[in-house]
């Protein structure tokens, strides 16, 4: 009896020790909604349908990236559960789906999604709920507002700064140009246009035609013809891929030979230029900060080879020259890094702290020499871009990299 009592006492002590150890482990781990010992639940939306459904590949890349992470053990012992819903590139739909993710699915954070109008529609809601919108893909200035919207964390060069860089390029290449600008009538198009005029400075008076369009318009062919009729020898499109492709085709059909510039959002070889005709796109000018897997200057780098293997295994139906997957991959990579740095302190407050203190990070699909960094008072993360020119097969660098902090100052 005494032996049995002793064993029972030892068992009781062991159970007490386990309980104490477990309580200490739980005390060491701080969680917000959406986090357990085995899972981190994230949410996002993407345009899987609607007028910009070609950008749904961005959302697919995010989902595929975290599947790869889970296949390799997850993050700090936890699997990532990314819930990605269709927003149809519609602001009301984005609000509806985001509310579902936050209130019904109770996600830890929003894995920043693509699109200016959709992100603008949920900005106040997420900030009010103190749910991080982590590394959203839009360069609209409204998202870099740490004082009023600390929970909204962008990860994209500002459109105004990019536009200023394109304006400065036109000044250098064709100082006496007659310029026509065709832009999307939303925050993206307006910010790009404002920056473009800023880059032109006094020469903004050389814009002879300025015309906008809506995302719902089926065609911008007539606008392109009007720009040619205005006598322009520089044609600038600040829009989305579908309309840039239409513009490239129409310029060729008109026999027009302007210096043709498109914003960075429209530079995908597979998503924009191939549908427009690669021969038609030869000589096109844009800007970038991301490497392209098919670029002969980059395809032998290990980080690019890793991406190629990722695409073969997890996104086999998407071609490498469709670079719509690239920002989704970079976005998911950066979210992974921030989650790893959080360790077991998986609170939204710590996530915000880690996401707004980046230092010399280089996402795998960035151009050599372009790194990211931000702070709690300035969320801008990407500070350099490269002007590029399309040679009929690849985008080639044109000139030195541009410091966006200087060009837009």
What is the count of β-strands?
15
The helix/strand class is alpha/beta
Question: Helix proportion of residues, in percent?
Answer: 40-55%
Name the CATH architecture of the largest domain.
Answer: 3-Layer(aba) Sandwich
Number of domains: 3
The fourth-level CATH homologous superfamily of the largest domain is Response regulator
- Major sheet strand order: 3-2-4-5-6
Notes on the protein architecture:
The chain is α/β, with parallel strands linked by helices and 409 residues long. It folds into 3 domains: 2-31; 39-157 and 297-378, 3-Layer(aba) Sandwich (Rossmann fold), CATH 3.40.50; 160-288 and 387-407, Rossmann fold, CATH 3.40.50.2300. It is 43% helix and 17% strand. The protein contains 14 helices and 15 strands. The chain has helices at residues 2-28, 56-71, 91-104, 116-129, 159-173, 187-200, 221-229, 241-253, 269-276, 278-281, 302-314, 325-342, 348-355, 404-407, and strands at 30-31, 39-46, 79-86, 109-111, 133-136, 152-154, 179-184, 207-213, 234-238, 259-262, 285-288, 345-346, 384-390, 395-397, 402-403. Strands 3-2-4-5-6 form a 5-stranded parallel sheet, sandwiched between helices. A hairpin with a 4-residue loop joins strand 13 (384-390) and strand 14. The longest helix is centred in the N-terminal third of the chain and has 27 residues, at 2-28. The termini are far apart. 48% of the residues are buried.
């Amino acid at each position: 009896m005494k032996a049995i009592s002793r064993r029972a006492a030892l068992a009781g002590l062991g159970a007490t020790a386990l309980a104490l150890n477990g309580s200490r482990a739980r005390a060491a781990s701080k969680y917000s909604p959406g986090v357990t010992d085995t899972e981190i639940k994230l949410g996002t939306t993407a345009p899987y349908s609607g007028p910009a459904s070609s950008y749904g590949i961005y959302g697919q890349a995010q989902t595929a990236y975290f599947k790869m992470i889970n296949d390799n053990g997850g993050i700090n012992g936890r699997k990532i559960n990314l819930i990605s819903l269709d927003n149809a590139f519609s602001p009301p739909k984005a609000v509806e789906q985001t509310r579902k993710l936050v209130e019904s699915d109770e996600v830890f954070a929003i894995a920043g999604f693509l699109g200016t109008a959709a992100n603008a529609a949920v900005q106040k809601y997420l900030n009010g709920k103190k749910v991080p919108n982590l590394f959203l893909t839009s360069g609209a200035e409204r998202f870099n507002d740490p004082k009023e919207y600390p929970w909204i964390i962008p990860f994209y060069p500002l459109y105004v700064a990019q536009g200023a860089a394109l304006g400065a390029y036109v000044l250098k290449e064709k100082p006496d140009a007659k310029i026509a600008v065709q832009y999307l009538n939303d925050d993206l198009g307006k910010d790009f246009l404002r920056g473009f005029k800023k880059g032109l400075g006094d020469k903004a008076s050389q814009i002879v035609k300025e015309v906008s369009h809506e995302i719902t318009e089926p065609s911008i062919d007539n606008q392109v013809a009007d720009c040619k009729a205005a006598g322009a020898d520089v044609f600038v499109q600040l829009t989305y891929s579908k309309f840039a492709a239409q513009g490239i085709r129409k310029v060729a059909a008109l026999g027009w030979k302007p210096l043709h510039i498109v914003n960075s959002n429209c530079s995908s070889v597979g998503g924009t230029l191939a549908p427009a005709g690669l021969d038609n796109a030869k000589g096109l000018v844009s800007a970038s900060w991301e490497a392209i897997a098919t670029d002969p200057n980059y395809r032998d780098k290990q980080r690019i080879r890793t991406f190629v293997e990722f695409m073969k295994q997890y996104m086999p139906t998407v071609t490498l020259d469709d670079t719509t997957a690239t920002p989704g991959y970079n976005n998911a990579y950066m979210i992974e890094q921030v989650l790893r740095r959080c360790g077991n302190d998986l609170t939204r407050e710590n996530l915000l702290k880690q996401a707004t203190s980046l230092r010399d990070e280089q996402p795998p699909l960035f151009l050599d020499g372009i790194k990211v960094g931000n702070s709690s008072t300035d969320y801008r993360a990407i500070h350099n871009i490269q002007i590029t020119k399309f040679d009929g097969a690849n985008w080639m660098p044109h000139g030195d990299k541009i410091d966006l902090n200087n060009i837009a100052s």
